[in-house]
Fold each of these.
Amino acid sequence: MTHWIIAPVILPALLAPTVVLAARYHIGIQRVFSVVGVLALIAVAIGLALQTADGSILLYQLGDWAAPFGIVLVGDRLSTMMVLLTAVLALCVLLYAIGSGWDDRGRHFHALFQFQLMGIMGAFLTGDLFNLFVFFEVLLIASYGLMIHAGGNERLRAGVQYVLFNLIGSTLFLFALGSIYAETGTLNMADLANRVTMIDASETVGIRVAAVLLLLVFAIKAALVPLHFWLPSSYAEAPAPVAALFAIMTKVGAYAIIRVYTLIFPPDLEVTAGLHDTWLLPAALVSLAIGMVGVLAAKRLDRLVAFSVIGSMGMVMVVISLFTETSMAAALYYIVHSTLAGAALFLIADLVRTGRGTLALEPEPPLAGAALTAGLFFAAAIAMAGLPPLSGFIGKLLVLDAAFGADQAVWIWATVLISSLISILGFARAGSVIFWKAQGMEPVETQHSQPSALSYVSVGALLALLVAHTVFAGQVHSYTGTMAAQLFASEPYVTTVVETPGKLSTPKEGY
Amino acid sequence: MELLVASAIGVLTSAGIYLMLRLRTFPVILGISLLTYAVNVFLFASGRLTVGAPPVLRDDMTVYTDPLPQALVLTAIVISFGMTAVVVMIGLGAFLGSNDDHVDDQPEGSEGQP
């Protein structure tokens, strides 16, 4: 049993209090700790991804208690890839926060950042539903602090909405867990996968309610229409690096849906039949449409980016809800793309704010550092809207291809293509108003300074990752294909978790 | 007893949801507190209701109560307590800053109206 798999949780959990206790008043030392910690996380994540690349399942039994009794951490291809994606995104975001000075505008940014990472990593790695709830809470509690970092009335108001909405979501999560436990007597995911199939067809009321409640909870996290109302104002008001890190949080919801609804309630399970195609797919199509219409309708750049995140989550959920191997491979490819593109856009919106002072989509005098910011926005907008040559285009092709044989192919194709056109219009309008119309205005003396070089480097790094995601699309897609195959053949996962011996796996041992 | 516990959960939930729809910070926070009480009782009942039975295995006992929901409830209580404190502080900050305790976004032009 390797201990490395718990490192992504332990490392930030130890770093955060160290930063608070030892380096409370020294922003320089905090920065060093934080960057070194994230670099170590990337190294660990690469190691874990390499270990699971051959299809093996990493299992870690906490305290050596056997699976249904103790909590387990499980690493397979999907969870290690999500951990790696989080770590890489965290490095870019952290560099931006340091470069732009956001981390110095309030207290404890780095400690909260590390706690946030701990929650996200734990949510990806855990193999226990109640433990998933606990890690959701860890990441939410840290995100409450990050969300209102640097203060301000508008931000606090948005923070209240964000916290209240998520509190309601957590309560729903507990209701779902309670009904699952009452029906099955276990909360371990692999054990649940076994027990749900044993439920008699005439007594499925409780487990069906639980499955729907759980889907609602994850849909809140993934900002699926009609549960998306918290996202635009919270993401727009949050500090830019925090909003960029939040780009992975919607993916935590998507990950939880993929995990629970392939492992515990797979699409061929009689009990939850109809949940995916009757309910999830239409909701996802509506999110895609509303997100992209929001891009066109937004009056401010940060709202525009927030709506584009909703739209791209809609796209992810559309392919997920088809629940075939091809569609899951496309969804996982698109998740990586949309995380990187969404984070880059949030950071670029902050570059615009730094050079211009306002994000309203109205003509203003040219902003400081216009040429470079405009170029970055152009590239990120192309990626997000899904135009060639960047990875959004490839992702969209994969989505359309996966939907080709499905029953609802006409709806999916129509929504995806029309909403793409709308989002292209929205991004083109925003870009031309901010960057082109400025050329016709009289330049005025302003106190707005050009963003620092490190800010540009971190945004450039995100865009470089997007380019790499495009260039190596073949390799990445074949790897997500093997990931999807592993998800739908869940037998090795279940047997690894349930049958690995530990304390209590034989009666009377340890007494 | 089943009826008593079930109706307690039901009443707490409905009162909580009613208060949550009031759109001012204070009633909403009260509503969420009621809802978390409801979910705590619900979690407790998910291990089946037994009276006077120990949760720890002993040799001379034949009837047990399920210890796991009690552990889950403990975790849930701690988290919801802490979260309520956090939301009170943030809500207070937002109210003192803008002199407005609406939870929803106000239409433009009516900013600062009590």
Amino acid sequence: MVPEVRRAYLEELKELGGMVEEMGDLAIEAISLAIQGLVELDEEKVKKVEDIDARIYAYDRAIEKKGLNLIALQAPVAKDLRFIGTCLKIITDLDRIGRYSMDIGKVTQRLSGKTHMKKLVSIPYMAQLTMEMVDMAVDSFVEGDEAKLEPIYEREEKVDALYDEIFREVLTYMIEDPKYISMGTQYVLVIRYLERMADHACNIVERVVYMETGEMVEHDI
Amino acid sequence: MINKVLELLKEEKACQRISLPPGIKAKTSGFSLWYGSTKALKDINIEIKENKVTAIIGPSGCGKSTLLRCFNRMNDTIVSVRTEGNIWLDGYDIYDDVTDCVDIRRKVGMVFQKPNPFPFSIANNIYYGCQVNDMDVEKDEVVERCLKQAALWEEVKDRLSENALSLSGGQQQRLCIARALAIEPEVILMDEPCSALDPIATAKIEDLIHELKKDYTVVIVTHNMQQAARVSDYTAYMYLGELIEFGKTKQIFEKPREENTEKYITGRFG
């Protein structure tokens, strides 16, 4: 029989996991709104991203506090300790994803009143892949499924390839006509943010591998 | 003449030994113990590393104290106890018929859950073991050495003739450790040495255990898993008389191999 005090502790662990999941869902919503805002050059959506980012930050602080309290008061070990450690690590990744969404919002604000130099196709596609990766990472945490590591690496390769492709495309526009330089550099910033978000999604799944197996994923820096 | 032959045979038998791997101070091989018809230890195989701290953890009644007490044959005094298998100390079988229990207990000291100083002076508590064992040592030297090793010297050096029962609980427990050290053992067994102590006294004993492992092999039974994690190099987890898992403490507390261990150390049962 599980002693009463541990029952409350297990409940708290469950709550902590639930908070991380909610934070992850917000991060995905932030990317989606940020890209919609960019495509439509819609500053209202940027405001929504700002709100979501503030909520993501609040989750970051609350989860950190709860995780540290659990460590201090319950002295977790083994899988419980790995679980809490993973929560404390991946909220930084999720928080960064929220910040990059905000940064995309700032690009939208800088492009306000202008029209895109061409219809945006590749950037929304890259954003779609990135969102799928973050979604996959959050699912992997919620389900404790370390098997998502290889699929997420495969998607990351696609995102990296898209980054190179879009970068070259934007560069050709800027070379052809210097008036595109200002807008082109903003697009380059956006794809850089998306590429970083994809990296953070990989970090999350790597931490899930540790959480589930106790093995640290080593990769080239 | 017959006595001489028997003595020679005894010496011959006592000399029989196995070679333990380097760094192994003691080892049990298929060791089982019964209290009457109840099997309290079931086929235990464990290696105790030299100059390391080994913690034995597990729920109440799992056999951890019973196992600890086997390392210096403290269970011999219980009439209904029967054992099978071997416990090797430095390659000698301590359960061999010819093995002298007193010799074993001189080599393997013990500290109990509750401090149990003799109602003598502090100095005499320490010197008592030397007297009983006819050890050729200077009283003042052995008292100072042991009290220093037990991190108690500074607190009691000016009151060595006072009754040991006047010391606080934590000091009494360190005195008991000092007393165990006086007969120059090689292994120290500790059966929940901090369970009756406050956190400060506990911290002092834990620091002391770290110091002691430089010169001694320590085996500690504890109910406090954080203590096991803090003080030990190796941890053995027992359940219902069986050794479920044994490994480096870091591995046991970070990534136990057995589900049963994981459930116990995370408080899912116990």
Amino acid sequence: MSAPNPAIDIRELRVDYGQFVAVNDLTLSVPEGQVFGLVGPNGAGKTSTFRVLATLQTPTYGSVKLSGLDISEEPEEARRILGYMPDLAPVPSDMKAWEFLDLSCESFLGGSAAERRSRWEECLEQVQLADRAKAMCKSLSRGQTQRLVLARTLLHRPRVMVLDEPASGMDPLSRRNLRLTLRQLAAQGTTIFISSHILGELAEMCSSLCVMNRGALLSSGTVDEVRQALGRQQRGLTIAVISRKEEAAEWLRSQPDVLEVECHAERLVLGYTGTQEGQSDLLEGLFREGFRVSLCEERKSSFEDILITVAEKNQ
Amino acid sequence: MTSAPSTSSPAPAWCLWRNPILRRFLRTRLRPRALGASLLIVLIIAGFIFAMARTLGKSQMETQAYYARAELAEGLPASPLQMTMDSVERMYLIPLLILQGFILFVVGTGQVAGGMTADADEGTMDYMRLSPMTPLAKVLGYLFGLPVREWLMFAVTLPFSAWGIWKGAVPASNWVPVYAVVLSAAVLYHLTGLTAGTVLRNRRWAFLVSMGGVFLLYTLIPQLAKLGLVYCEYLTIMPVVTENLSGFLPLSAGAALRTVQEFEADVSFFGLDFPEAIFTILSQLVLCLTFIVMLWRRWKKPESHLLGKAWASGLSVWIQIVLLGCALPLISPGLLFISRRFTMGVGRIYRNMGNWEPQLSEATAMIIIYGTVSLLGVILLSLLIAPARDSQITGLRRAQRLSSQRIPRFSDEAPSLPFVCFMSLAAAAGWTLFARGVIESHWFPGQFLPSWTPFVFGLVILTTSVCGALLYELRGAKGIFLALILAGVLPVLIGSVMAAAAREFSVASVWITSASPFMAPANAVTTALPDAIGNHTPMQVAGPRAFIFWQGLMVLAAIWLWRKHRAESHRRAEAGD
């Protein structure tokens, strides 16, 4: 029996704007039912990738398949299984919230007015916006607008959801609800491809993610794998010594793989690039030299750190 | 596992009542408050026209009746009444038609262009792109949805017109063609606005460009009909309205107009007679179809050219066919010449047609205008199909990925040169046939076009359009703009100033003015027909010489640009960038 089609299958995707290469030979595969994050600094090629996936942009070359459907050959069919939420979540200024959803319902699902109403009411409930159904779209707050567009994305029960910065502008409660909604959808088999600048949340939401820079894929895998692959050089250690702090700092500076040592009250904060074994040897050395260590803490690099590093490399 | 989306198949494009985009606008553009205000304004204006015209008419009728009674009382034979109740009821039909035209053509077109741009501006057009509706259904949804309020405003004026048509006893043979053409023209104008709104991103610009486009396409260009390009007239409602105007006027005025109109010819297309309304609607349908193709392409692929290479080539041939088809049959009776029409107008008034004969200079002017319009048409179509530099690079990368060194010939990214050449030759052929038809007609015995004329006409259109297309492909819109200003406009301005400044500069001014490629058609015609302007003065002698010199330079420029374009294409192909 052949393996099932991945929900998103991108092969050697390239997107050019004249001489500028926005996405360079991107190959990526996302299995069904995953919440997959896309991280990268501005200009990394995230939005271009998303727009190609959403059939809104023709790539220079490369193939993109959604649940086995080639989007360049069957764009209309691909759109039926795709839910796309663009960045900044635009809404029409001349429509009411329910009219906006009803329009999408009608163009995707058809059916009677009652059937459509039942569906958009369900989606509005899902994003906790039922009480604003009759409001004009332009009167909604930023967070409410985001939720409305999310509701629109959910309307036709897409198998693949591509969400560009869905949480921006949402209050903490809405963010938590978004997280829950996405997890629920993923549990039901929906594949979610999501980008966000609130990286901590992305780490909490995603089962896997990839990091892009200058149109290329830097790393891909589970959250821990990516963190290790890109963030290994950024490990920070905090060591508390009871006495002879200055001497301990001096000794540490002389050790290999120690980048810089800062003294903060009772603690020494240092950057360390060595292996786990080297880290163990370092602590043993401290004890051997007679320093009384009361605490040693490893601070793993956050996604913010990773992104900042990537962005700095970019410059 | 998520259940599969329970989607029904999308409604076919022609099922307008099931079109979600149309239904969207039925909701948003027909909100009671805004709609009520619009309808009220229209009702007030239409009601005012109706009441005012009727009151004035009745008053006129009563005055006439009073004098008739007075004449009878004095024992004189009473003058027949000029104004009857039928005439009174017709008095407001034309003003109402103008109001209806304003609502549909001006307000509607502006709304379509602005509404389309608003969707693009707000970013919500992407939602429509994402919907699984067909591109044609999307085009039709916007086309009939955006101006839905204006259609309704138009509809509320109809009862007044219907009353006038009924009570004024306007024959169906008059009002049916007029309203049929009003409707087809409204769709055409709205398509113009829709195209402008799709191409432009700024709402204000979209409105201005669509209004400018409508004015240019349907007001200025039709004026060329008076100068030999008869077909252009059928892009407007004017021929049909003029033909049927007598039915809309008070009886006495209508009768007078019918006397004047009895000499007017029907549309004779290559000798086949068509009713004007049918021909106008067919002409407008072709243009509508072209706009729909443009919009369809944009909905299908947002970055695509407005017209494909094949469609543009076909369109250029079609334009020549319709221009010739309408013009050639009018040469023999002399109706192509504006002086003949003028003489006929005067002759009808004074009951004296005189001994009219066309002047060679008038024929020459018409041939020059035909050539210039053909040249501009080819340049416009060339720029529509010429790929920008970035687009060529993308196309080449795609082709190389597919292990090919060439971009598919009909794709948007492919060089436009073969198609530009084809369109140029088609235009030159049409121009030659027109020139030959006019000059070698029975009106100008002894005149003929030299055998080298087709070659020269071809060269004029070919070099200019090829240079334009290659320049665009190499240097983009900025290059074209600079060339237009520096080579196209500036020489004409400088030459004109010099000619006006002093007689001694007249020869120099001819040489400088001839540098503009837009003067080439005029120079080519006067070179081919020296009798039209004479060849006695230094200025007359300088014309053909300047033409040959500048045309030689244009040929060299075209060759140079072609070599440069080729070299760059090879470099790109080898570098793989």
